[in-house]
Amino acid sequence: MSEQNPPVQRSEEEWRAILDPEAFAVLRLGATEPPWSGEYVSTTAQGVYRCRACGAELFRSEHKFDAQCGWPSFYDPVDSSAVTLHEDLSHGMVRTEVRCARCGSHLGHVFYGEGYPTPTDARYCINSIALTLEAEDTVE
């Protein structure tokens, strides 16, 4: 973490105070929003996607693609240090969980080798509720 983006550590009580119940369930408890329900699934606006919990820059719109999976999909994070990857053995599957490197919030999962025509062969399948979009006209 850089001095500009120091790690964010809060108690469960503090997270509950700043996140609505749905965002808390996804970001802090690892839940998943229902497919096709999130505000960024079909968004084509240009800009920066940030962590809803701490504001860290995670993804840019130029790395977003339409995977037709029900959640916003990106082929690469803005920086390899923006997210951390963790083995997830829940629900009887082996997956790779994606978390915000700054605050540890659950964002979604990353999948490889699905055949999408992207430069990285990766699909970061991210919950809309885990993100905020800073539109390009407001990005410095």
TrEMBL record:
Catalytic activity of the protein: L-methionyl-[protein] + [thioredoxin]-disulfide + H2O = L-methionyl-(R)-S-oxide-[protein] + [thioredoxin]-dithiol
Gene3D superfamilies: Peptide methionine sulfoxide reductase
GO CC, any one term: cytoplasm
Database matches in InterPro entries: Met_Sox_Rdtase_MsrB, Met_Sox_Rdtase_MsrB_dom, Mss4-like_sf
Entry EC number(s): 1.8.4.12
The name this protein goes by in its record: peptide-methionine (R)-S-oxide reductase
Lineage per the UniProt record: Bacteria, Bacillati, Actinomycetota, Actinomycetes, Streptosporangiales
Domain MsrB: 12-136
Keywords in alphabetical order: Oxidoreductase
GO molecular function, one term: peptide-methionine (R)-S-oxide reductase activity
PANTHER family xref list: METHIONINE SULFOXIDE REDUCTASE, METHIONINE-R-SULFOXIDE REDUCTASE B1
GO biological process: protein repair; response to oxidative stress
Pfam families xrefs: SelR
